[in-house]
Amino acid sequence: MNQQPFILAIESSCDDTSIAVLKGKRVLSNVVASQLIHEDFGGVVPELASRAHMQNILPVYLKALNVANVQANQLNAIAFTNGPGLMGALLVGVSFAKSLSIALNIPLIDVNHIHAHVLAHLIEEDNHQNPNFPFLCLTVSGGHTQIVKVNAADDFEIIGKTIDDAAGEAFDKIAKLLNLPYPGGPVLDKLAQMGDGSRFTFSDPRNGFLDFSFSGLKTSVLYFLQKEIQKNSNFIHENLNDICASVQKTIVNALINQLIKAANSTKIKAVAIAGGVSANSELRKQLNELNQKGFDVYVPSFQFCTDNAAMIGIVGYFKFLNRNFCNINILPQAKF
Ligand code: KG4
Ligand code: ZN
Fold first, then answer.
1. Is 110 in the pocket of ligand 1 (CB under 6 A)?
2. Which residues are CB-neighbours of 219 under 8 A, at least 6 positions away?
3. What are phi and psi of 38, to 5 degrees?
4. Which residue minimizes the CA distance to atom 20 of ligand 1?
5. Cα–Cα distances in Å, from 254 out to 32, 51, 80, 110, 325?
6. Are strands 145-152 and 155-161 parallel, antiparallel or unpaired?
7. What burial class does residue 69 get, using C-beta atoms within 10 Å of its C-beta: 0-12 exposed, 13-18 middle, 19+ buried?
């Protein structure tokens, strides 16, 4: 085939139903239906996520084709998230992908969700620079915290990771201790911008050489709040912005310090970030400062940072080039 392939990509690992159409490395459409139902429960409810994927997937598919102005019979392959993620949620996307592959008689491509967050950096966009190999990618979201050395499109080395909670999970759980609505990360960020981040000190979420541990931080914030509330029942209310700013600074300092250490030890100055937490204002500020210290910093467009199908499509594109297809009997994997 001398023409660029049309890849349809499906993402359904958590609480966003997303379908994208790519032509080669360019995104023609990237439709995301976010599930608001979980807000009432303070977290993602797996059973409700599966049901919402079932309701959303067909309209999202039709819209993705429509926006891309592509007919189903022009598609060359179907890429889908095979894990990690919530099993019931994954099953919806995988079953839909298999049905399409049989109906259209085109190959299936299984995609690892975390690889997709990383390769989102290779999506081609106007006025946007892509990193060259090798580069480091700090993937920080509600489910993942990793520093990955990306040697090639199919060659990843995880050189740092969390041993318990993910960074976004830490933001959300601490926001919950402060009685903020779910998902707490963006709300905490907003309040932190009005606070003093040096006011309170919490335990350091770094662990070992390049790893993280965020559950200790959550516990240290919990004990701190319990102690202060005993002295002043209005403590959270009166100090909310400073608590948020101090928590945010603790998390972001740890992320940036480990990233710098990883860059120094691998001698790679090209650093990229991915995942929902890359929207964080303090993280962006500190990354900007790295840019001025001789690092090359890459931040993908926001729509490709949070969970989306375009990033599944770019992995699908590289696997398509290698004819790296999967069998119709493939089963999703909740954990890798
Ligand atoms: O990548 P993502 O959309 O979904 C997952 O794969 O998890 O990331 C969602 C996570 C949530 O934990 C959310 O609180 C966090 O990203 N997040 C933020 C901000 N925006 C989103 N955390 C801190 N500051 C933000 N501005
Ligand atoms: Zn994700």
1. no
2. 203
3. -70, -20
4. 186
5. 31, 37, 33, 33, 39
6. antiparallel
7. exposed
Question: Token match 């359904």: residue?
Answer: 12
Of all atoms in ligand 1, which is nearest to the CA of residue 283? 24
Q: What is the pLDDT of residue 2?
A: 64
Question: Burial, 132: exposed, middle or buried (Cβ in 10 Å; 0-12, 13-18, 19+)?
Answer: exposed
CA of 100 to the centre of ligand 1 (A): 31
Residue 292, both tokens: 């001025």
Cβ 84 vs Cβ 166: under 8 Å: no
Q: What is the pLDDT of residues 295-318, one digit of tens each?
A: 999 988 888 988 999 999 999 999
Name the closest-CA residue to atom 24, ligand 1: 280
Ligand 1 lined by 85 (C-beta under 6 Å): no
Q: Whose CA is nearest to atom 22 of ligand 1?
A: 185
Q: pTM for the full model? A: 0.89
C-alpha span between 39 and 29 (Å, rounded): 27
pLDDT value at 15 more than 90: no
Quote the tokens at residue 157: 């080395």
Q: Give nearest CA residue, ligand 1 atom 5.
A: 142
Whole-angstrom distance, CA of residue 28 vs CA of residue 21: 5
3-state secondary structure of 164: coil
Q: Which residues contact 12 (CB under 8 A, 6 or more apart)?
A: 18, 53, 57, 80, 81, 85, 89, 90, 92, 93, 96
